[in-house]
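Checklist before submission:
- one chain only
- standard amino acids only
- sequence pasted in full

Submission:
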Amino acid sequence: MTAEAGESAAVPPRPPSRLRLVALAVLGPLALILLALWFGIQIKQLDTMRTVVRASYDKRFTATDLIRGLDEAESAQRGYVITGDAAFLATYDMAHKTSLDSLGDLRRLYASNPEQIARLDQLGTLIDDKFAEMAGVIGARRSAGPDTADALVTNRHGVALMRQVRGLVTALGDAEQATLASRLGYVRSHFQQMRVFVWALMLVAGLALLVALWIVWRAQAVRYRVEQDAHAAAARQRAIFAGTIDALLILDEGGHIQMANAAAGRMLGYAPDELIGRDGSGILGVAGGKDDFHTRIGLRDGVLIQPNRLDRTVQHRDGHAIPVDIALGLMALPEEIQIVASLRDISERKVMERLKDEFVSTVSHELRTPLTSVVGSLGLLRSGSVGELPDAARRLVEIAENNSRRLIRLINDILDIEKIGSGRMHFESVPLDVARMLDQAIDGSRGLASTRQARLELDVAERPLIVQGDADRLLQVVTNLLSNALRFSPEGGTVRAALRRDGDNAVVSIEDEGPGVPADFRDRIFERFSQASDGAAMSGGTGLGLAISREIVLAHQGRIWFGEARGAGACFSFSLPLQAADPRSESGARPRILVCEAQAEAAGLLRGMLEHEGCLVDCVVTAREAQQAARTGRYDGLILDVALPGENGLEVVRALRRRADTRLLPIIVISGVVDPETAGAAALEVIDWIDKPVDQERLIRAVRRAVEHSATTRPTLLHIDDDLDMLEVTATALAEHGRMLRATTVASARELLGQQTPDIVILDVALPDGSGLELLPDLFLADGTAIPTIIYSATDVLPEVRGQVDAVLVKSRRSLPNLAQTIRRLLASVSTTDT
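Returned file contents:
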């Protein structure tokens, strides 16, 4: 097949255009109707012209009758004058009447022609004069005899009148002839145009017929070529379908097998025809359930969610299981989308993998025990437990110990891979702070960094970022990435670790200044035992670290990838989903402590101590930031270094004690300069004054007292709402009224209520996992007393629900003052009840 034929065969057929069909169906008849109307108009014009010609004939005939009537009247007059016979007078009277009738007919025929009517008026006058003259002659003959009548006739007055009458009648005829000639000329011209149009129309129709015949011929030729291509493609597909070594099944939208190749029959123990019509999902062991087949197979919006189903089994006809890898594809037909299933028998591969896993497991376990002894013995020698070693011997012991530990890491990696492959790796699931995990990984990698004379930098955009996962395994991922970056970095280079939030994910990035990832290695960089062949990138390693890291990240519902660093090196990143509750919406079950310390190293030390105790820690560096944060009401205590650069920390304490909303905030002062007796610490009402360096146990005891003091001296407000911004705004507005706890779901609220008993509950109705009203039965004290509850929601509630709570407020821009007023009222009511 040529490239052109291949391209034409790849183009899907286009359905006939309905718009074009409708246009032809409408325009064709419309053109015929317009043509028929046009011919009708032409015929009507012919009829009109025929009527005009007939009218012209009638006019001229009537004018002739008029002249003939005058001539007959004049002849009858002369006969009577000559003979005196009265019979001539009867003819005269009849001719007179004929003339007058003809004149009336002419007036009717020329009623719409003013010019001719004027002539007829003159003609009427002349006719009247003529008949008056003839009446006078007849009267003279009757009364005076023929001589007198002859005398009147011979004066030729009647001849002159008759001449004038004939002249006017001739003028009438000439005008009518000119009008008729003009009309006939117009008709001839019009019909000449119509003749040209008809010939042109016939020419266009002939050309259209030729074009239609050419289109039909071309369509037939294209159809023939398409049928040829389709026949050849179908033949090739049948040959491929029948000859492939993998089993192929084609399933319709109901999951029934429509086609099966010979390999499928051999694999499953059926003849190919016996498989037709069987339930494919049952044979393949996929897409079970009661929904329609496409939903069960994972077809969403024309895309298969999981096209590859690895390490599956299918049932042979005799009942034994066959291990297979199943690849699913789509075959879009005009009437439906069919599923193409490719089954590859992996029995031999499974045997080889089992033998390999058994060998690796046996060898790894057998090596671990002696290597542990070797490393332990070398460590004792290096530490001088059996006596001091010479410098040369100490260096050799260090080399042996480092390489023994490297071998242990290789064995551990192999065992991890084996566990991952067999699905036996166990993962703990606990909340952990990714920033703190990075701190630990950086500290643990400083030894390797020093041997490479490299620098380690850490950039954390936000603390804390809490994820759910296995701390040891995720620390292993970060350590692997840092180890790779350090090994590939040049001496004196910099390895940068960064942590940032990306939507609902925490993203960790490790970038180096090494040679980067070779192009021919990128497709298999996360495969087992894969190492770049580029000599510039070769720097030891097992080839398992990235494969293990990928599996660990995937097990935590994350993803891992690589790209180019800002320089010439590589940047490896992985993302982990954050906990459903944002750190801003932390419920308050873990104490939140504010640390004001200008020295970053000291602040980090305090953070580590407090987080190890289970506290949430926010750090600020200036007195102004400390006062602003304290006024939010989010903190159970403040740890303050009074020796702030350019500021007096004691003034911060005094300022906080002067405000109503921070007066009861527990404060722990740390200092290495100011004497508490000299500063008047008792007057400041601080929990403790701790000298630097900070005693960790004393600090923890002071923090515990601060948390207990905060719980007993300030009312506890529980706000349940899934809108994080609303939680933040409400906490700021109600900071002076008490200590704020937060929950964003029904489940987290129930968990929090099991740990603490709030004084007041602010409840939203619409929560992600149910209605907030489901919590009403939980809002009771041990003695059966209801906890004061305010429904603070965007929608109103039913009247029967209003009776179960203390207040109902609808969220709006002006409702926060109302909420604060309601809180004050309920706190006053609770205080009165307690007394």
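Reviewer check: The chain has 25 helices and 26 strands.
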